[in-house]
Structure formats: C-alpha cells, structure tokens
Amino acid sequence: ETEHLHRMAYNAAFEEFELTVDGEPVIWSEEYYDMLQNTIGGGKPKMFFHFRNTLQGNFPLSKLHKDAPPSTDEEQQALVDALQAFKTQHYKLLLKTEAEPRPGLLQLMDQALADESIAVGVCSASTKESAQKTLELTLGPQRVSQLDV
Fold first, then answer.
1. Could you tell me which residues come within 8 angstroms of residue 103 by beta carbon, excluding any fewer than 6 positions away?
2. In angstroms, rounded to a whole number, what is the distance separating the alpha carbons of residues 74 and 59?
C-alpha cells in the first residue's frame, strides 16, 4: 500500500510551490486524501477537483503566481502540470526510501509461492510501469519474477 506516499508527495509539491489560499498553506489531510483517492481517479483530476470543487474555484497563490491566483484555463493547467511533475518525482524518491510491504505479506506470499497448486498474482490500479517498480522495491525482484499474474 503506497497511497500515504502519494499524499506525502502531493503535500511536498504544495509546499515546494508555496501554495496558499486565504493565507493558509494547502495541505491534504489523511481523511481528505482518503476521500479523494476513493472518488477521483488520477493526480491532475484530484487537484482540479480540490481547487474547483472543494475550494469552490479558488485556485491558490503560488511561487508561479504570487500576486493573483491563476485565472485562465491555461494558467490553471500549467500550475497543475507543474505540481504533478514535482509530485511524481518526489513520489519516486519516497517509494525508494519509504515503501514497505504490509506486515505479514512477505510471509504469506512466500508460503503461497512455495505451493505449486496456488497461482500468485498482484492487482493494481496504477500503471503497469508504476506497479512493477513498486513491487520490485517492496517485494524484491526474486518474488516478482515468481508471480504467475
């Protein structure tokens, strides 16, 4: 499970870009991010939802827009694109340094892999590339190479 790392990466992007609304920093709490991840698919749509719906169209000030929030669709898209690019890079760093399998998962997986009558696979909502990298970092390449699906 790496969703908490995604939330940390979004918050790092918001901090890096100095996002504020009404003088308050933009921070996604665990509870709020849980709602977002279970409602809105994709990183950019999550941010657009937050700014357009939760904040009722109040895009934040940022180091890219210090005097006034982005007002055109193009400016808003550029801000979200920049935030997403930073978030993605920061997430990759967090994945390498913070990702861990859930307690007991490796033992359970090893038991299943040792039993030839059990097909072992992983299902993910992320891209194949992202899922593969996460699996290699958390399970190890040897276990990943033994997966049936």
1. none
2. 13
Percent of the chain with pLDDT over 70: 100
Q: How far apart are CA 31 and CA 54, in angstroms?
A: 14
Phi and psi for 18 in degrees, rounded to 5? 55, 45
Which residues are CB-contacts of 56 (< 8 A; sequence separation ≥ 6)?
none
**pLDDT reported for residue 84:** 96
Question: CA–CA separation, 5 vs 138, rounded Å?
Answer: 13
Number of Cβ within 10 Å of residue 82's Cβ equals 16
Q: Do 15 and 90 contact (CB within 8 A), yes or no?
A: no
Query: For 91-129, what is each residue's pLDDT tens digit?
Result: 989 999 998 888 999 999 999 999 999 999 988 877 788
Answer for the pair 44, 134: CB distance below 8 angstroms, yes or no: no
Distances (CA, A) of 113 to 5, 76, 144, 149: 28, 48, 10, 12
Q: Name residue, tokens 């950019």.
A: 44
Q: Distance between CA atoms of 94 and 114, rounded to whole angstroms?
A: 31
pTM: 0.83
